[in-house]
Amino acid sequence: MSSDVAPFLPAPDQMAASLQAALPSFQRIDWLEETGSTNADLLTRSRQAHGAVARPWLLGTHLQTQGRGRAGRTWQNRVGANLMFSCAFDVFLPARQLPTLSTVIGMASCQALRQQISPDLQSRLNMKWPNDLQWDHAKLAGILIESTRSGTTQAADHHLIIIGIGLNMLDARALSLSLDRNIADWAEVAAIDAQAAQATAATLVAGLARAWYDTLNQATAHGFADLPARYAQVDGLAGQALDIIDAGKLRQTGIACGIDAQGRLLVRNAEGVHPVSVGEISVRLRR
Description:
alpha+beta, BirA Bifunctional Protein, domain 2, SH3 type barrels, seven-stranded mixed sheet, five-stranded antiparallel sheet
């Protein structure tokens, strides 16, 4: 392990070994010193796979040189300041239901990280629709979900889902200044919470990966009927006045009032309740 890696981040081979012990359901786990993008790597590798496909497949890295967020945004990172990994899953759902996974995975991620925090502080970690994780309404983690048809079957409902996350561990103050918006990091949480301070990098990754695996299996078996009620437990926008921006233009204003069973954000104004779909649309708190 290089000397400039933060103490919480073990060498790649040690990280992979810890995760293999913690995630017996995963068929393959790799952790690298550096790569371009873990999401892109998994998409490429999964499409090139021949014979039996090793999934779920987790790929993490100490540094991403071409990390991506939603809508093509770049992900700023440096070695030791961010926890970055992606997972590839086989999912059996109708194509029309795939957009719902953005909200479902965000919700599952929030609940997984809450398990690493003392109960009396868990409510300070919430979710900004569709899947940003926030600590005290400052961005703590971003999630990118991509899908493609699986090359291993002809079944119409068989899709390859790649879920990637970047969790800020350090550097929140510098990022807040450079990005001109509020950013949080895990060190900030750990500074006030002994339970969070005990969480290792492997513990955080394993908890998230396991939550994704269980959530996707649950969605395949039972659908999304209980999604609005579960989302309400982590909703960081409830009651907030919002602007809905699409392609740089203001499309809607109103008050956030939860989501529907399709994972769409519900915005209420004088004209009624309007569902907002995941896509190029962004949500901005009104000031």
